[in-house]
Amino acid sequence: MRHFDGWRYGLMGLPLAFVALPLYVVLPNYYAKNFAVPLASLGVLLLVVRMLDAVVDPLLGRWADRLFHKRPRVLFGQIAALAAGLVVGFVALFFPPAFLAPAAQAAMVPPLLLWAGMCLIVCYLSFSALGIAHQSWGAMLGGDAAQRSRVVAWREGLGLVGVVLASVTPIAWGLTATSVLLAGFLVLGIVAWAFGPRPAFAALAPSAGWSSLWAPLLQPAFRSLLLVFMVNGIASAVPATLILFFVQDRLQAPAFMESWFLGAYFVAAALALPLWTRCIAWLGLEKSWLAGMVLAIAVFIFASLLKAGDTTEFLIVCALSGVAMAVDLVAPAALLAGLLQTKARDISPAGTYFGWWNLATKFNLALAAGIALPLLNALGYAPGMRSPEALQSLTWTYCLLPCGLKAIATFLLVLHILRKPL
To answer: What SS3 string covers 203-255?
Structure first.
């Protein structure tokens, strides 16, 4: 693969990252504010649908393996069909039929939740299948370490561009513009992917048996690393789920600043990636990841002290949180890759390891919504409430709950390091 060809493969990472932020961050606030959906009901819905989506990831990995044996026209025809399903599900989710939408009619909430659940299933399954196929394609391009790094860099770099665009577009230009851009980016991504570098499909081995699905969970080192990854991921997903509530009611910030906060978070993460790469070369993966966790804890303790109007301080919080998050993009996956390298004799189930890894990522988001939103409801907070008690509950859930989870993840990572053979 020529160096410049990497962008053709990586471009699909932009729309996949672009669609993820509205689905995971904008949606809870949007349904609560526009359709008066109770937070507890919304939390349960997101938990159930995201759990259902997560458990199929290993199966989607097997589907991708079979897909790659098909002729290119059939292969990219199925990829295009998935992309079309993603766009249709996204539009239907954020623009439900008028007879379901009236917030004043409480009796209409169950049908609206049912509609949202069906649309979410379409969106999540299409998104997951596209993402797994794209990641698997990149892994099969092969090459030496430098070439594999370039492949991942194009995908993740363009993915960060997609995230930054998605953090601004829904707030600045609305969800109609977001839908149009998503469709356009997907078309460009598929075309570039189809004309980009291709793996040597003849070299692919047949799919492993069903028993291989469970092989990663039989590895103690993998289970230990996966546990750290999950607890740390939940800690990061809780504030991502609640940030708009915190900005609107705790900080009472102007609406236009919401895009500033999200943009500061992701831009800082992108700029911090080279710094963390140097830090990893100096301290190693585990110690660098620990440093990122400690930084995140300190940042959210500071955030818990903020009051209405502290927008400049919260911009700093968002930027430093992005810096701390950047190491989460690098260290866990690199540690998993190192774990797989120690098992070089058994290359074939590597995709299954990543299938379970993706499943854990989605469980993090599902558990974050399923824990944080009902907890806020139980503590007496609802969107728009600004009594001292409600705002204190919001602050505890947004700031201090992630701190506690990060502290647990830090402890588990230390145990993981101690368990490693010398």
So the answer is: HCCCCCCHHHHHHHHHCHHHHHHHHHHHHHHHHHHHHHHHHHHHHHHHCCCCC
Q: Name the DSSP class of 420.
A: S
294/235 Cα distance (integer angstroms): 12
DSSP string, 298-312: HHHHHHTT--TT-HH
Which residues, at least 6 apart from 169, have a Cβ–Cβ distance to it below 8 Å?
18, 177, 178, 181
Mean pLDDT of the 308-334 span? 89
Which has the closest alpha carbon to 171: 244, 270, 268? Answer: 244
* Res 17 pLDDT > 80: yes
Residues 6+ apart with CB under 8 A from 4: none
- Top CATH class, 212-422: mainly alpha
Q: Which CATH code for domain 1-200?
A: 1.20.1250.20
- Number of neighbouring beta carbons within 10 Å of residue 173: 13
For the entire predicted model, the pTM comes to 0.73
Looking at the chain, the domain(s) classified CATH 1.20.1250.20 span 1-200, 212-422
Residue 101 has pLDDT above 60, yes or no: no
Flag whether pLDDT at 130 surpasses 80: yes
**3-state DSSP assignment of residue 197:** coil
Whether 205 and 348 have beta carbons less than 8 Å apart is answered as yes
Residue pair 382/37 in contact by the 8 Å Cβ criterion: no
Strand segments, DSSP code E, in 40-162 are: none
Amino acid, res. 179? S
Q: What angle do CA 15, 170, 27 make, to 5 degrees?
A: 85
Q: What percent of the chain has pLDDT over 70?
A: 86
In whole angstroms, give the CA distance from residue 239 to residue 368: 9
Q: How far is CA 417 from the centre of its chain?
A: 26
Q: Is the pLDDT of residue 234 over 50?
A: yes
